[in-house]
Structure formats: C-alpha cells, structure tokens
Give the backbone structure.
Amino acid sequence: MQLKIKYNILKKYFSISKQLLIILLLASCKSESLYEGPLSPEESIKTFQFADNFKAEIFAAEPLVIDPVAMQYDGDGNAYVVGMLDAYKPDAVKGKGEIVLLKDTNDDGQADTSTVFIDGLREATSILPWKGGLLVCAAPNITYYKDTDGDGRSDFKEILFTGFFNKNEEAQITNLRFGVDNWIYANNAGQAGEISFSRKPNAPKLNIQGADFRFRLDRNQFERSTGPGQFGLAIDDWGHRFFTANSLHIREVVVPMRYLERNPFLPSSAKLSNQNISDHDPLMNQLSETPYWRQERTNRRNKNYQENNLDRVEYARDHFTGASGGTYYGGDKFSKTYYGNIFTGDVAGNLVHRDILEVVDSVPYSAAKRGANEKDNEFMATTDSWFRPSNLSVGPDGYLYLMDMYRQHIETPMSIPEDLQETMDFDAGNTYGRIYRIVPTDAAPYKAVYPNLTKATSSALVKTLTHENRWWNRTAQRLLLERQDKSVVPEVKTLFAQNENPKVRLNALYVLEGMDALDATIVNTALQDSSSGVRENAAILAERFPECLAQLQELISDTSIRVAFQATLSLGEFKDASVINTLTKTLQLHGQSSWFRTAVLSSEVGSSVDLIKTLDKNSFFKETASWKLDFFETCSQIIGARNTKNEVSTILNMLSKPTLSNSIEWQSVGIKGLVKGLKNSKDIDDSIQEKLKIIAAKADSNPSQALEDLKDLYAN
C-alpha cells in the first residue's frame, strides 16, 4: 500500500516536472522567436540608411569597446571611451563600468588596441579631459582621475563633487561639457541631491533638485543651472545650451537659473526657463520593427485609457521615447550646411535624428527644423533593432562619431510588466559595443590626425583658436585656461581686436576672461561688436563692470532679440536708478513677450514699486492689455510676498488713483496679486489667511470693496 502511494506521488511529481519542462521550453522558443538575433558590425553597418550622401565606417567594435556611452578626445587626440557595462543590472552586479583608451596604431582609421584607464566604476556616464587627466561622472560623484606614471592607467583619484542621485542610470549626473564661457556643464535630470565640493569643505551643501549643474575648477565655483536635461547636452558656439530628455529630443535653455534665483519672491508661474524648440515633435521616422514587448505594453495601456475614459493615447513607434546624446556638430569635414546642426540618437527607434537650428526674430531662442531631405526619413536609420545610438561626438579629424551600445533590450526593466520581462533577455548584448565614424560618401581616404596640443606652446594655442574645427579651438581655449600663461595676453587681445571671424573674437574674449585680463574698455568694445553673438556674451560680461552700464542699456533696442533679452537680464544685476527707466522702455518694446516680462521681474529693481511708479508716469495704465495685466499682477504678487510696509502701502494707494481705479481690471489683478503674495509671506497666521481669502473672492466682482478691506486689514 505504501509503495503504491509513493509510486503515485512520484508519478505525479514527474508528470508536473515534465509539464514545467515543456512550458519552459515553449517559453524559451517563444522568447527566441519574438526578438531578432544580433548582427556582426560588418553586417549591421550594411543596414544603415542615410538621407544624404553619407556612410558609416567602423572605428571600434567588441571586444575593444563594450556598451559605449561617451567618447572624448584629450589634447593629443587620444580617444577615451566610457563603457557602461553595468547598465540595467541589479545592484549585486553593479560597479563593472570602465573607461578605455583606444589607439589606432597603424593609421588605418580603426582602433586596434584598448587599454583600461579606469575600471570598477558604477554606472559611469560621461568624461571630460582636464589637466592631463579625466573628469568622470559616476553618481554619486564627479571624480578627477589621472595617470601620473605613464603606464596608461589612472593611479590618482580625487572625488571633487559628491551627493548626486544614483538610483536610476537613465537619470543621473552626466554629459560633462566645457562651454565657451569657461564653465563646465552637466545634466542632472532635476534629481534631488545635496552636493558638496571637496576643495571647499566649509561651503554649504548645494540643493540641486529641479536643476542641472555647472562648475569651474579654475575658480572653485559650483552652482545650479537651468534644466532638467537627461542624456544629451549640446552647447553651440555662442554658449546656448540644448538638452535631450527621452520624448523631448531638443529643448533650449532660455533663462539661466542664476537670474531666476536672484529674486527669491519670483513666483513659480513666472519662472520660465527652457523651451521645446522642435517644430516636428514628437514624430520620428523609424525603419526597425516594433519590439513585441513595446507593442503589447502599448496595447494594454491604451485599453486601460479607453476603459477609464482618459483622453490619452500611447504610441509604440514613430514617436521619440528614447532620445539620447544630443550633440552639436562643429567639425570641418561635412559641408557647411551641416555646421551647427544637432544630432540626436533615439535608442528605441534605432535611428539618428538631425535638427537644423534657425534664428527666430521674434523670440529669444532658436527653432529646430528638419532638413529638406529628411521630411519623411531620418539623417540615419536602420532595420537592425539591436542598434542603440547612445551618444555622439566630434573628433579632431572633424568627423562625427556614433556610439552604439548594441543590445537586444535597452529599456529599464522597472517600466515593463513582469510577464513581458519573462520573454526578454536583458543580458543579451553584454559583450557588444560599436563606434562608427560618419563620413561623406565622397570623402578622401581616412587620414589620421595627431594634434599634440598639450605639448604646444601657449602662443601656438592662441593661433589654434582660429581653427575651423571647433574641437581644436575649444580644446586650445581649455588648455590656455588650465595653464594660466598670461604672457600671451597681448596676443589674445590682438586676436580679439583684429580677427574677422566673430567666433574667434568670442573665444579670445573668454580666454581673457579666464586669465582675469578683461577690463571695461574691452567689454565696451565687445558690446558694440558687429556680431550679435559677441554682443550677447558681452552683455553677460558687462555685469562685472559698472562703467559698461550706459553701453549695456543701449542694447535693449538691439536689432537682435537675443541681445535685447540678455541685456534685460543683465541690467537686473545693477542697482543704479537709471535702470528703472531702461526696464520701463524694455516693457514698452518687448512687454508682450512672457520671456521679457520674466527677465524684468527676475530682478529686485524690475519688481519694485519705483518701477510701477515709472510705468504710471509713462501711461502704462492708460489702456489695458492681457500682457500688461499679467505683468502688474505678478509684480504685485512679488511686492506682497516681500511684504515691505512702504511698498505694499504704496501699491494700495496707487490702486485708488484714477488711472487704476477707473478700470475694474487693473484693481482686480492688483488686489489678487497682492493677496497671493501676502499669503505666501512670512508670519501670516491662519486668521489673516482666511481674511485674505475672502478679499480675493471679492476682487473680480467688487474690487473697490476688496481694496478697502485689504487696506483696513493691512493697516491693522
């Protein structure tokens, strides 16, 4: 009897095991059939389709590089590559990232050696050459590494900044970029963090939530910057910053954060900072097939939206969802029509997108447009679904380089339903990685370039500022900043005064800035430069020189909207009484623009009672307009939040004057603004809050009574 029971149990056990085995085998077969397998670099490159006359060449591939996410060249033209080998891995196996030095020893255009410069990195994302070593972003730190003994491997380490968010590799500190203004910028995706700087241990920690990051090691400065950018940061020749964030493939910083934060009472509704400048978002033109998991997830989400009567639709393809690596092309090997374009990969769409930046006369930012040959296709796309264009860079040879992580799946598992994850192998592609060089189809055979700028004299570096390939002139500027060899200051001044290329003049201007060799005379000259880009940057530099105020004030009438806008922002740094008249004129010229209203209000003088009085004298309140009402309400809100007795009393009295009391609209917005501000000011108890709420409710229907009630409340 017992034997029979045991036999039945064993029979049942083996039957279940057999069923499980069959299920597992079916699942395995299903998984394999759902997703395509990998191609070799030579096979994959044959699937690339370009909209124009370009082709791709293999610069490096596995095993020399694995999971490349960034590449930068040092002053001697050495290519350093960040390999994020621990991307999308559980914490237990994190810390396998590395930075390798690639060499092309036979000058055939392909790397043939790979030396590990640093390994054991956790989710490293970005590098930047600095003082013979590398700055490395690997959250929670930005660290300086250097090889001091010449063996090709770092043996010196200094953690410079720490405290950055490190819980998601897609939203961490990344994209180190050296700007023309001598600041180093990085994207932080707006993540929370309390940042400390090892070289200034007594400095307060910097709360970086909601912002990106910038710093200067030559002056030990660090601060918040406008964001939030994700994986992709491009800076043009004039210092304008463009960033990438998944479905929003190109946004431009319009107002630097230092201006928005100088007025602590500026309401969040007025803190305009960046702009989506694409005229074709969110559409892209995909060639590859839609992955099974993405289509299935999209179907489920759309069904849920419909069942819950939500006005939402998700798209599984042909829409940016994985935009990455936005890069400014400043090279000299493409035709001139490509100079200044921004190239952005989409890792989900398996393509590279191109944006042409155009100046817009009416707004202080660019417009990003498609090329004439790219209305229905992309600069480059492929049918290979493993192609994952994570980033791009421009080399000293002037060509565009494209990093391909080459993985079957690149999305973070946390965003995919568990049952779909079971059909996916997130490790597929762990040993792959490619870097391609993009060249015109009619390009001459590749010729290796060896800059050797670290060994060049400082005088030679000054001459290099005139190079047509921006990699050269920007690298020369950085090296001059690092050296601080002030013997070349006269040469740089001559370059600024005499060179016909405005980009060269701007480089020279900031080399002088970096060497503390600027003076008011030079800046005043720059304020009158024939180039709007030079004038715009001169306005920023004029903030340091009171002697430049008069010339700066003239720029609010500049023919370039960007110059007038920057002048407005910069004027807010001055306390001179004459600035009020200038800002009044600015509102007359540009007040219909919400950007200019923010620029004025961002300063203390631009949100003062004295400005309101001056506007009154200049017939500002004679007629209503929506933008005028908006400005007056926001300014009143700031004055209320500041809660200085004389200022609030003055506004209350002005609201009783005929010029404002004759219009219900002026009184209404003035009262509502004051109430909003007072409610947010310090030391306002609950009983006062309730009374303010009642007054605000009367502002539209009975503003005269609301005004009297507010006067009585404030007087008491």
Notes: Residues 1-31 have pLDDT under 50 and may be disordered.
